[in-house]
Amino acid sequence: LAGICKSTKRMGYGNKTLKECTVLLCVATILLLAESRRVKQPRCPASCTCTKDNALCENIRSVPHSFPPDVFSLSFLKSGFTEITGGSFLHSPALHLLLFTANTFDSIDEDAFLGLPHLEYLFIENNKIASISKYAFRGLKAVIHLSLAYNNLGTLPKDVFKGMDALVKVDLKGNNLECDCKLKWLVEWIHTTNAMVDQIPCSGPPLFQGKLINDLVPESFDCITAEFASYQPLMFESISVESFTFGMDTFVVFAQPFTGTCSFLEWDHVETVFRAYDSIQSTSTVVCKPMVIDNQLFIFVAQLFGGSHIYKRDISANKFIKIQDIDILKIRKPNDIETFLIDGESFFVIADSSKAGSTTVYKWNGYGFYSHQSLHLWYRDTDVEYLEISGKPHLILASSSQRPVVYQWSKSLKQFDRRTDIPEMEDVFAVKHFKVKNELFICLTRFIGDSKVMRWDGAMFKEVQTMPSRGSMVFQPVSIGNWQYAILGSDYSLTQVYQWDLKRGQFVHFQDLNIQAPRAFSLVSIDNREFLLASSFRGKTQIYEHLMIDLSNN
């Protein structure tokens, strides 16, 4: 504008024009001054004291949203806000130092310090912080000194310091940190970071209490656990379940007593579910037991009525055909079937629970199965278990009328001889065995009373552990990798899953499963996955997947 005025004077427009220009200049100056007054600089908030470059806030109820632009050091003392919310300092980008001490807030939200690219010192000390968001410190790339000393922190979220690559010093003393799997990441971080971390004692668990986190190593932690997660319910009731492999494929078969069916399922590798494969129609079916002999699949079908039968898979016709009836005079009320090999010969044994029946061993002769040996009569056996004791074949018979009886195979006679019984274990419904580090154990099921775990000591079975039973008809050991479980079913409450504790030398409670009247369990390994199949006598048959869980990732 001044230049225009000078030009008009040179061009001869005279003093009048010059005066007009002078007036315009004055008006423009006044307008500019007025506009500058509209853009006010932030003032020091109430309850805060500000100097040229520092601000101190005391006894305030919330974090102010603006401070003078030249403030690069900000402190909060004895303030009453309960948390630091996300974006609390977006309007103070010049801060180099931020301090909180003796305040009452107990949590820090994610992105609480977003928008502070120049912050180098962050002190959050002597407060009541119990929790910090995993992303609380996101964006603090310039911080070199971080202190969280003397708070109420019991843990820290994994990777809470991620992106803070400029850190030189971290202070965590004065907290009650639990050195459990949730803090395994911190141990790993301490061993890899360039920042100096003060000595931090562990408040727990008992294994590490009093030790310094700085002295721990990642290998100190056992953080892998597991669970049986519900995977696929099957809309039928069943009383037994068996898994088997035939022709490079894996199958499962359920005995359905109310429909009189052996239901076969196969694994669908595309849909990743178990689907119907085939069935055998029968009457009041209680057991469908598979056995593969010389690449031939046989199914022993035990029935309460109408006799029991043996079926064979006809590959050319793609169906099961009945090839043999089982002697109805010996097997009147079958309750369990076991298959086994001795010296390369194939056998199966049926436990008969009738008053007039007889538990009988059958042998394959190349063409069919014939009665090989009848064991004790009139004892109403409910279960039979084949196992090896000291490398020798044995059978254990459970009975409703006597203590479990142990039979040993005689090589010379080629039959089983009674060896001993298990004392003080009357009314055992079923017996199952398992091994831990080459030691032999058995699980004995009682319907009411105490089910028990016993160990073979070289001469007899001795009690290791007692499990309260409330309507239990199955106490099934299951081995998955290095994990040993035992599943105690119940008709009246939840099914209890126990896990073997190597240090204690016994089972500890692991998980509860909600299964109505469970009768049998079977494990299936398919596509590097482990499935537990559970038969239910009064509800849906269930399939669970055994999932590995890394607690250090939680």
Brief characterization of the structure:
The chain is mainly beta and 554 residues long. It is 8% helix and 47% strand.
Describe this structure in words.
With 554 residues, this protein is mainly beta. The chain folds into 3 domains: 48-221, Ribonuclease Inhibitor (Leucine-rich repeat, LRR (right-handed beta-alpha superhelix)); 223-236 and 422-553; 239-324, Lipocalin (Beta Barrel), CATH 2.40.128. The protein has an 8-stranded mixed sheet, with no helix packed on it. The protein has a 4-stranded antiparallel sheet with strand order 12-39-38-37, with no helix packed on it. A hairpin with a 4-residue loop joins strand 18 and strand 19 (308-314). The longest helix has 25 residues, at 14-38. Residues 1-14 and 21-38 have low confidence and may be disordered. InterPro entries: Cys-rich_flank_reg_C (IPR000483), EAR (IPR009039), EPTP (IPR005492), Leu-rich_rpt (IPR001611), Leu-rich_rpt_typical-subtyp (IPR003591), LGI_related (IPR051295), LRR_dom_sf (IPR032675). It comes from Salmo trutta.
